């Protein structure tokens, strides 16, 4: 005779006492009432890896969370896990906080209208191996006023930019309050700005049409420095914002959908530990009418307020081009070391044979001016406290 749902829940609560009972019921229902499949999903080992493919690809993590700040247990899947609630997002993404309704409604609408109708947005251009590439979304840099010195962004001098409107400046002031309140509740990382309150010196904005996207990347730290803090404001239509760890390469993908007038704060450590993207909408996907924004329709505006810590560019000793600040992550034996790499192959056709790049390289030492060293052991270094693999491997070499 089949066991009742209540009997199955009693068994599950005995086996998984740390899980919320309502969450256990959610999993049991998603497994069509199968106690065996539920045990497999919530368990571990090779059987879980084989079985997970049979379950629903889109999941919410609330079913796995006992309390908002408890550790989240997830099984690896190639499908994104969707995070809906603030507690889910912040429990799953260590260096991220999510905030809704950050601006007065009328201010958010005015800022959205201004940016949607700004005709100066344009596609970004860059070079890879001598080939010119163009993004399929549009971008624009904004500044409070004309900079007194030469301003660089991603290896290029910024000459085309917009000046803040009153609405953009007011939004920045309000967002700075949200960011500083969030920072007051977090433990700082060693290389993030120590100069009191977080302030933004510029804003970089992306405009997404229905058929636009942004590929996987981490924001370059060249000017925003190590352990940067970026406040990302979403306006208009809600699009997927996907995040995954930079290591290993098959890390679980998490997806959130920032709502109109919401803020994702990418805290210190986010750019070092995560990559993010805005994927294309599925082909032939028909957006439900109720999901369209009354002003923007299917268009989305993203404004990222940034604190620029490094004003003076570092120039390559081989070719004289500006260099990019990066951090090693692929090899756990070297993970955590910051370095400067020539950006010439990304910013212009360098005249070399196709496939060749400038080899300009130096380790970064943030205690020096300029912050360069040829000695790896004297370079600046940071590992996440939960990076067990790299910590164990590097400790064994000491």
TrEMBL record:
- Gene Ontology terms, MF aspect: dioxygenase activity; zinc ion binding
Q: Keywords of this protein's UniProt record, alphabetized?
A: Metal-binding, Zinc, Zinc-finger
Q: Keyword Nucleus on this protein?
A: no
Q: Which residues form the GRF-type domain?
A: 316-367
Cite the InterPro entries for this sequence: AlkB-like, AlkB-like_sf, ALKBH3, Oxoglu/Fe-dep_dioxygenase_dom, Znf_GRF
The alphabetized list of GO BP terms reads: DNA alkylation repair
Residue ranges of every copy of the Fe2OG dioxygenase domain listed in the record = 199-309
Gene3D superfamilies in the record? Alpha-ketoglutarate-dependent dioxygenase AlkB-like
Q: What is this protein called?
A: LALA0S11e00254g1_1
Lineage at the top is: Eukaryota, Fungi, Dikarya, Ascomycota, Saccharomycotina
């Amino acid at each position: 005779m089949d066991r009742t749902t209540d009997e199955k829940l009693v068994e599950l609560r005995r086996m998984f006492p740390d899980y919320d009972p309502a969450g256990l019921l959610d999993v049991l229902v998603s497994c069509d009432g199968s106690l065996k499949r539920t045990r497999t999903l919530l368990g571990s080992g090779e059987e879980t890896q084989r079985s997970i493919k049979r379950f629903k690809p889109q999941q919410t993590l609330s079913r796995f969370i006992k309390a908002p700040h408890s550790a989240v247990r997830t099984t690896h899947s190639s499908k994104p896990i969707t995070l809906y609630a603030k507690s889910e997002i912040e429990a799953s993404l260590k260096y991220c906080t999510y905030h809704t309704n950050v601006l007065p409604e009328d201010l958010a609408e005015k800022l959205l209208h201004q940016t949607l109708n700004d005709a100066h947005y344009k596609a970004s251009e860059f070079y890879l191996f001598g080939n010119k590439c163009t993004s399929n979304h549009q971008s624009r840099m904004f500044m409070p006023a004309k900079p007194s010195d030469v301003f660089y962004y991603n290896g290029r001098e910024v000459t085309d930019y917009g000046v803040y409107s009153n609405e953009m400046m007011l939004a920045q002031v309000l967002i700075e309050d949200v960011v500083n309140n969030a920072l007051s509740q977090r433990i700082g990382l060693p290389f993030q700005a120590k100069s009191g309150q977080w302030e933004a010196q510029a804003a970089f904005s992306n405009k997404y049409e229905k058929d636009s996207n942004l590929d996987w990347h981490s924001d370059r730290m060249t000017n925003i420095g190590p352990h940067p803090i970026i406040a990302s404001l979403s306006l208009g239509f809600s699009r997927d914002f996907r995040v995954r760890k930079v290591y290993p390469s098959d890390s679980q993908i998490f997806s959130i959908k920032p709502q109109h007038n919401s803020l994702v704060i990418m805290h210190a450590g986010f750019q070092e530990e995560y990559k993010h993207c805005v994927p294309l909408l599925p082909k032939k996907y028909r957006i439900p009418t109720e999901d369209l924004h009354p002003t923007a329709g299917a268009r989305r505006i993203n404004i990222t307020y940034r604190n620029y810590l490094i004003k003076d560019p570092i120039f390559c000793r081989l070719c004289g081009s500006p260099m990019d600040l990066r951090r090693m992550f692929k090899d756990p034996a070297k993970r955590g070391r910051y370095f400067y790499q020539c950006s010439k192959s990304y910013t212009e056709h360098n005249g070399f044979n196709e496939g060749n790049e400038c080899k300009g390289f130096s380790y970064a030492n943030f205690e020096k001016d300029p912050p360069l060293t040829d000695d790896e052991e004297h370079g600046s270094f940071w590992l996440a406290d939960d990076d067990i693999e790299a910590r164990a491997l590097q400790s064994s070499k000491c």
